[in-house]
Amino acid sequence: MRILFTGGSGKAGRHAVAHLLARGHRVLNVDLVPLALDGVDNRIADITDAGQMFDVMSSYAGFDELDAGTGVPRFDAVVHFAAVPRILLKSDNECFRVNTLGTYNVIDAALKFGVRKVIFASSETTYGVCFADGMRQPDYLPLDEGHPTVPEDSYAMSKVVNEATAQCFQRRSGADIYGLRINNVMEPEDYAAQFPAFLKDPSLRRRNFFAYIDARDLGHMVDRCLHVDGLGFQVFNAANDTHSVDKTTAQLIAAFYPDVPITREMGTQETFYSNTKAKAMLGFTPQYDWRTILGI
Fold this sequence. Notes:
The chain has nine helices and nine strands. With 296 residues, it is of the alpha/beta class. The protein has a single domain, classed as NAD(P)-binding Rossmann-like Domain (Rossmann fold). Strand 7, helix 5 (190-200) and strand 8 (213-214) form a beta-alpha-beta unit. The chain starts with a strand and ends with a helix. It comes from Roseinatronobacter thiooxidans.
């Protein structure tokens, strides 16, 4: 596939781009800074500028595409990860503006240039727990895509708006538009650097539902989205299979969720951030478990 990928220079994006390249896709990375990765094409552009998005959506990826002499080839899919990645980086209104306007511009340009598959990054924060003022509890566990999305911060608000925007675009166009509610992303080096602290103090993981998504498995999930057609508008939780702390499900429930309804029997180390839908509908099969990586 010929893919336009926004935000490929970021923490999550660069691993997803690497995975897509390894799978044989051609990727044009659209970001404010280039990605230094063999095989990727780069374009510097601002997602909040509609003109720039329309331009890159109708542009050559590289000089080699000039050789055919048949004009600019079309993109087969768009993956949109570019965003202000969390609160407390920019002003709240700027975070909201960049994320919502940028998503509108990217999807609008993609559909108007005939792209029929758009994948965009939503977030675990939409469920209203991660950046809550105080310790807010989920309504039930395991937490699936049917859980209410009622956040109170600008970043999570922007992601909820983006999901509504995507659903409206999908309804009019009939294209496939899939949103990934991405859990806390872990790069390979993060396991040795961060997980010892999580083992010592599991409460550090409460705002993330004690879950995580390996960046390489996220790349695999994006690839599965590209290959599964006909789902219309969908949102999928993106997480690995197990908790990110050395406690059992029962121990975590007793310590942190004693009053939260548990809707079904759960595995001994099964993640509270359910990836069941992605497994069933996309064939998502995460491979990287922190215990194996750290030899625990």
